[in-house]
């Protein structure tokens, strides 16, 4: 957590207790969602595209990295535009981008879907596995007695969702 990494914790009074929540959206992806991505990777004529941090995350029985080692076409991309280019270059294959992240990654992925439609690229698909912070915060606050005075979200998420 950046609060600890950058020494901010030492600046706070000892009466403030900081608790880290669940980690990145990749780390909290449900096994069932990972299993879907892995199953798609095993289909013929399919290219799975994803960010590198998804490769080693285990599902119930495997991972995308293991699927790749077993012969599935799984490719790491650095942007969703890379995935779209792979779809353009491989019109005979279904190219599936594993959409992962917080609210912040959804707009660029949505734009890639629109671009694919505008350019007539009909072999580009997205498996959306995004995590939304407001429902998570609401679930925590709805649990009954929750003794906290505030929630600090990741900065990039806060910039997108605002303070309300």
UniProtKB/TrEMBL annotation:
GO terms for biological process: protein maturation. InterPro entries: Hyd_form_HypD (IPR002780), HypD_1 (IPR042243). Transmembrane segments: none annotated. Gene3D superfamilies: HypD, alpha/beta domain 2. One of its GO terms (molecular function) is carbon monoxide binding. PANTHER family: HYDROGENASE MATURATION FACTOR HYPD, HYDROGENASE PROTEIN ASSEMBLY PROTEIN HYPD. This is Hydrogenase formation protein HypD. It comes from marine sediment metagenome.
């Amino acid at each position: 957590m950046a609060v600890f990494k950058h020494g901010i914790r030492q600046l706070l009074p000892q009466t403030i207790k900081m608790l880290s929540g669940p980690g990145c959206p990749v780390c909290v992806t449900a096994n069932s969602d990972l299993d879907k991505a892995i199953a798609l990777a095993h289909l013929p004529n399919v290219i799975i595209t994803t960010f590198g941090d998804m490769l080693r995350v285990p599902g119930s029985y495997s991972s995308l990295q293991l699927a790749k080692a077993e012969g599935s076409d799984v490719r790491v991309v650095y942007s969703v535009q890379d995935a779209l280019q792979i779809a353009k270059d491989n019109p005979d294959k279904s190219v599936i981008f594993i959409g992962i992240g917080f609210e912040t990654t959804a707009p660029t992925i949505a734009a890639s879907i629109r671009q694919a439609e505008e350019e007539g690229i009909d072999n580009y698909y997205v498996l959306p596995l995004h995590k939304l912070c407001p429902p998570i915060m609401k679930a925590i606050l709805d649990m009954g007695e929750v003794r906290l005075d505030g929630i600090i979200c990741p900065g990039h998420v806060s910039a997108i969702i605002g303070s309300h």
